[in-house]
Amino acid sequence: MLDLVAHKVHDESRQGESYAPQNPDNKVYTRKFYIESYGCQMNFADSEIVASILNKEGFGATRNLEEANLIFINTCSIREKAEQTVRNRLQEFRKIKTQNPGTLIGVLGCMAERLKAKFLEEEKLVDIVVGPDAYRSLPKLVAEASEGHKSVNVLLSREETYADISPIRLNSNGVSAFVSIMRGCNNMCSFCVVPFTRGRERSRDAESIVRECRELFENGYREVTLLGQNVDSYYYTPPYSQPEEAQPVTFARLLEMVAQISPLLRVRFSTSHPKDITRDVLTTMAAYENICKCIHLPVQSGSTRILQLMNRTYTREWYMRKVDEIREILPDCSITSDIIAGFCTETEEDHQETLSIMDYCQYDLSYMFFYSERPGTLAQRRYKDDVPLEVKKRRLQEIIEKQNQLSLNNYKKDIGKTFKVLVDGDSKRSADDWVGRNSQNKVVVFPKKGTTCQKGDYVNVKIKDCTQATLFGEVV
Ligand code: SAH
Ligand code: SF4
Ligand code: F3S
User: Fold this and answer.
1) From the CB of 273, is ligand 2 less than 6 Å away?
2) Model confidence at 27, in pLDDT bands (50, 70, 90)?
3) For site-directed labelling of 253, which of 26, 299, 397, 430 has its Cα 20 to 30 A away?
4) Considering its fold, how many domains does the chain have in total?
5) Ligand 2 centre from 179 Cα, in Å?
6) Which residues line the annotated binding site for [4Fe-4S] cluster?
7) Whose atoms come closest to the Cα of 82: which ligand?
8) What is the mean pLDDT of the chain?
9) 268 C-alpha to center of ligand 3: Å?
10) Is any ligand 1 atom within 6 A of the Cβ of residue 78?
11) Same domain, residue pair 202 and 345
12) Top mutation candidate among 77, 78, 319 for ligand 1, by most atoms within 8 Å of CB
């Protein structure tokens, strides 16, 4: 398996990292591509598909912009700021293009889908525009662009899942990998651009998912994260040609199939829409020790009135009962969230309800944003973006402070407990320490001295101290 180094996960601080080849086969490539990714884990997983498609065409990856024949930027449209980051980056690519006029610049992902051919008018330096469902056409588009024709393919598909393409793992630590299980989203949250950029929801062939996870395990990986905008609505119906006993596969069943590969393979998943996570999923999680006890359950707001305007399809009380159900079936489970401050018409009372639902749910971590109006969404068409920016920012700050408090309290409760930790590698701060994560996805740092463990091993660590984002302990 060809491996590339340099990749990263969904985390605002790590946006935009590039990839470079490790090249174990010592193959020398005369044509090279450079790729940089922004946005969610799905986009990073897609870049691994793109790398695989380009590699088959004889392009090697490089981390050095100057030696690249192709420069790709995999983009995100979720908030205005995400798009601005991409535009700024494109301006930096302009210098490279001036030095090497033959270099082709391609825009991939959600911004490509949103802006389509308009991108070519707005950003003259761009040669290729490709939407998330059109990556198979990249070889053709690159060939056209090499001949001087700007090329665009932003067709969305109802079927494409890239099921048969083996992703090239980019900058993986060799322990943990993302596996895409579905694409698109059929929910219509009024603030969200994803249904427009990613198209209709479709589930990937269950067998191909299990095969990919098994291969990862056989290649030494010890953790897979099953990815989708709404994993709990995964539903795969085998084609008619299969035997009659072939049953549709639900998300709970898929989780079980992946968990059964080996007790040594940890299984995670993201993201769950609160309306779709079933009791079946929770009881399956409880039944398998290797299905990690961590649920990302974005609440968005604590006010029923705002949730209705957001078209989230649940109320404050309904969401709280869902959290009760999780706590009842999975007492050790961590719960994390996404929260939006200052959605259209949000009052101080609504905002207070968001703060109080956070207290109720005791989130271990949240991704927090202020509302950013997106062109074409239901909210943009129907509601006025009427909360002043200073108010949005102040409310967001209060939400962040609340989350910091909750995280610290939660982490403090772990002092004295012993966790099974999967070792990810050296701690960023010191090569004398290992860093890993427990089942709840909390980062655990512990001294190497006196231990014999290696990257990819499981060890029991007793927690002695913490910050709001890290547990510190010792191997027992
Ligand atoms: N499919 C996932 C979310 C994907 S987007 C889910 O339903 O949970 C990730 C997060 O970005 C969302 O949960 C939301 O909190 C935030 N987000 C989406 N659109 C936004 C907007 N217009 N302004 C601010 N935040 C937004
Ligand atoms: Fe966007 Fe809602 Fe779909 Fe998540 S579930 S991607 S927030 S529309
Ligand atoms: Fe962004 Fe597209 Fe993901 S808009 S968050 S990259 S699905």
Assistant:
1) yes
2) confident
3) 299
4) 3
5) 19
6) 40, 76, 110, 185, 189, 192
7) 3
8) 93
9) 20
10) yes
11) yes
12) 78
Q: pLDDT band for 3, please (50, 70, 90 cuts).
A: very low
Ligand nearest to the CA of 300: 1
Find, among 36, 29, 30, 64, the residue nearest to 50 by Cα.
Answer: 36
In a domain, 4, yes or no: no
Atom of ligand 3 nearest to the CA of 43: 6
pTM: 0.94
Ligand 3 atom nearest 198 alpha carbon? 7
The percentage of the chain sitting over the pLDDT mark of 90, rounded to a whole number, equals 87
Residue 338 maps to which CATH number?
3.80.30.20
**Residue 78 C-alpha to ligand 1 middle, in angstroms?**
7
Tell me the per-residue pLDDT of 105-121, one tens digit each, with 9 for 90 and over: 999 999 999 999 999 99
Q: Which ligand is nearest to the CA of 376?
A: 1
58, 63, 68, 73 alpha-carbon torsion, rounded to 10°: 90
pLDDT in tens, 296-321: 999 999 999 999 999 999 999 999 99
Residue with CA at minimum distance from ligand 1 atom 19: 192
pLDDT value at 51 more than 90: yes
Q: Domain of 229?
A: 176-412
Strand order in the sheet with 176-180: 176-180, 223-227, 266-270
> Do 195 and 243 sit in the same domain of this protein?
yes
- Asked whether residue 450 falls in the same domain as residue 334, the answer is no
Which tokens hold the place of 216? 């990862």
pLDDT (tens digit, 9 = 90+) per residue, 66-77?
A: 999 999 999 999
User: Among 412, 427, 456, where does a domain finish?
Assistant: 412
Whether residue 264 lies inside any domain: the answer is: yes
400 and 423: one domain? no
Averaged pLDDT for residues 328-340 = 98
**435 within some domain:** yes
